[in-house]
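Task: sequence design from structure.
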């Protein structure tokens, strides 16, 4: 029994060390370059479809490397508590971003939106069109979700997705030169 207690203590110590300290995500990251609008999602059942869209970057404003952050966008019609849709991105991977650095652009869209037979530009001005707000949450490792922003979706038509982020640079060759 004494050996089992020691093994449990060692396992807990190793697990706690591997996880590292928690960070306060709202103080470590700043949401920047925010763009909202209605993305042209094509034609669904013979009708034009628009979905709310959020694009942003996150900048590390702390003095430590920030890694393992997920982002969750929850879209809701203004003054309606029911969720219109949500989107989840892995965000910052285990390699992290250095102090002062920014992430690539993230684009998050609801799968649900508005459909209509009129031209897309007229849909935004329709009397039955309701404004949508998106709440953006971030989660560091296994911590709880924390709201990092709330944005009104602008009534503007987005006809193309933002450019994909550039691929990460290849690692430098080791001391022995280039490898295959």
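Answer:
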């Amino acid at each position: 029994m004494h050996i089992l207690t020691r093994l449990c203590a060692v396992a807990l110590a190793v697990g706690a060390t591997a996880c590292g300290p928690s960070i306060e995500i709202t103080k470590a990251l700043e949401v920047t370059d925010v763009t909202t609008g209605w993305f042209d999602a094509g034609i669904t059942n013979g009708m034009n479809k628009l979905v709310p869209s959020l694009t942003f970057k996150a900048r590390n404003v702390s003095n430590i490397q920030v890694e393992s952050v997920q982002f969750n966008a929850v879209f809701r019609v203004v003054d309606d508590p029911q969720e219109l849709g949500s989107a989840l991105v892995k965000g910052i991977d285990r390699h992290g971003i250095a102090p002062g650095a920014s992430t690539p652009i993230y684009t998050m869209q609801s799968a649900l939106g508005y459909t209509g037979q009129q031209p897309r530009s007229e849909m935004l001005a329709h009397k039955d069109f309701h404004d949508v707000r998106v709440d953006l949450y971030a989660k560091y490792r296994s911590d709880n979700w924390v709201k990092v922003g709330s944005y009104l979706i602008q009534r503007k038509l987005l006809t193309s997705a933002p450019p994909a982020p550039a691929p990460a640079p290849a690692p430098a060759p080791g001391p022995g030169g280039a490898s295959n």
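The chain has one domain: 22-158.
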